[in-house]
Write a structure and sequence with these properties.
Layout (H helix, E strand, L loop, with lengths): L1 E2 L5 E7 L5 E7 L2 E9 L4 H11 L6 H17 L2 H18 L5 E7 L6 H8 L17 E5 L7 E7 L3 H8 L3 H5 L2 E9 L6 H18 L4 E7 L7 H12 L7 E6 L5 H13 L3 H12 L4 E8 L5 E4 L3 H24 L7 E5 L4 E6 L4 E7 L6 H23 L1
Parallel strand pairs: 5-7, 5-8, 8-9, 9-10
Antiparallel strand pairs: 1-2, 2-3, 3-4, 6-7, 11-12, 11-15, 13-14, 14-15
Bound molecules: guanosine-5'-triphosphate and magnesium ion.
């Protein structure tokens, strides 16, 4: 509010919808006049009429100056219309796509929790050291990603600064949570002073998403776990503390931009939301039923996410990480040596045998055998099965 010099009146302007403004005038803290839906150019006139009706004569250039001062404040703090219009654009985008293949994922948490880094590490292909100076997200950042044609998550990365959280709790609430399939709540495990705030925000977010979609999946990332000494004790404490008022099932993941934890957490999420997962799993499991096959994994090339796997969840972290590294190296060799397209790769060690097949332009099939000492007939048989299974998976995409 700005005081009108020489009077006891104050004038306030705030933005309302569609680039219109709300004008109000107070006299000794009492609201005495209010007009909504004003265009910018009409405000000075409106103020002048008001004062004329009170038989007060205030020079027009002075009113103009005060109005402009107020307007400049409105536009500098005007995140409302910025963020509201972002959400409107996102929703439009979302509604234009066939919803059965789009999955809306809400990435939310307090400021500085690490949400944007999580996205950039997995889907933006960034290295940890490239993420050390990540800037706070202004409003909502929207990203769409195609995971090996398996599923198309649409990820809303919600800036966590207080002014934005207030918006989410207010007018944007239903736009954000409506039609969302997955809540991905990120908490910075080193930010102990804000554990209680984080708990309240999680509780609120869970209630919102569930009210729109009772089937929604809730995931909590205990993030920046690399900075903690006793990871297991802290995870056990936080599980209890954060879920004290929540009855809906929550899946917890301990994550960090360093190492492989984010990739296995996301692999799990991607598999949960993909309609093709059931088929892939049954194909991979039938492969594993072969007496000489230890495990089978279907890997997405650009992210290294496992779209399907028969590995034990506890082994998957390392195995998927190592396989991704191997594949990056193979691709590099092929590129540098101009060897054209990659078809298959066989790795024999003292103890084991690994077969890698190119399935589609986004997917690789990896078969890990039980032993390196198999007869050449057995290996030949599995190689043929590998080619056949690659075909089956490819058909799943072409149909
Ligand atoms: N040690 C460590 N630091 C991390 C990790 N992830 C993110 N950070 C750091 O945390 C800071 C904040 O990361 P952001 O991803 O920008 O946080 P945000 O949750 O998106 O923040 P807002 O956009 O403001 O809501 C950055 O300085 C990152 O370098 C992690 O796994 N370990
Ligand atoms: Mg961010």
């Amino acid at each position: 509010m700005k005081k009108i010099p020489g009077t006891l009146f104050h004038l306030g302007i705030s933005s309302s919808k569609d680039d219109k403004f709300l004008l109000n005038v107070q006299y000794r803290d009492q609201l005495v006049y209010e007009r909504t839906g004003l265009i910018k150019e009409a405000i000075t006139n409106e103020v002048q009429f008001f004062f004329e009706s009170k038989n007060l004569s205030i020079p027009r250039n002075r009113i103009d100056w005060i109005v402009n001062e107020e307007l400049s404040n409105v536009s500098s703090t005007n995140d409302e219309s910025f963020i509201e219009s972002t959400v409107t654009d996102l929703l439009g985008e979302f509604q234009r796509k066939p919803t059965e293949e789009m999955k809306k994922i809400i990435l939310i948490g307090l400021s500085n929790a690490g949400k944007t880094c999580i996205y950039e590490r997995v889907f933006g292909g960034k290295k940890p050291y490239e993420l050390l100076n990540s800037a706070a997200t202004k409003g909502i950042s929207y990203n769409e990603y195609k995971v090996g044609s398996i599923t198309k998550p649409m990820i809303w990365d919600l800036g966590g600064q207080q002014q934005y959280l207030d918006e989410y709790h207010g007018v944007l609430r239903s736009n954000i949570f409506r039609k969302a399939s997955i809540l991905l709540y990120v908490i910075d495990v080193t930010d102990t002073d804000r554990f209680e705030d984080a708990r309240e925000e999680l509780e609120w977010s869970v209630n919102q998403i569930i009210s729109f979609n009772p089937e929604a999946m809730i995931n909590v990332f205990f993030h920046k776990i690399d900075l903690v000494h006793d990871e297991d004790a802290l995870a056990a404490y936080l599980k209890k503390f954060l879920s004290q008022n929540i009855s809906h099932k929550i899946t917890f993941h301990s994550t960090s931009i360093f190492g492989q934890s984010l990739f296995s957490a996301w692999s799990e999420i991607i598999r949960e939301i993909s309609p093709k997962t059931t088929f892939i799993n049954s194909i991979l499991n039938s492969l594993k039923n072969h007496k000489d096959v230890k495990d089978a994994v279907l890997l997405e090339k650009s992210t290294g996410l496992a779209c399907g796997s028969t590995l034990d969840i506890k082994d998957e972290d390392i195995a998927v990480g190592m396989l991704s590294l191997l594949i990056v190296t193979i691709n590099k060799v092929i590129r540098e040596m101009k060897l054209h397209n990659f078809k298959e790769f066989k790795l024999k060690t003292d103890a084991n045998y690994v077969l890698i097949y190119d399935v589609t332009q986004d997917l690789l099939l990896i078969i890990i055998l039980t032993s390196a000492n198999l007869s050449s007939e057995s290996i030949l048989e599995i190689e043929e099965i590998g080619i056949e299974v690659s075909k089956q998976i490819r058909n799943l995409w072409i149909e």
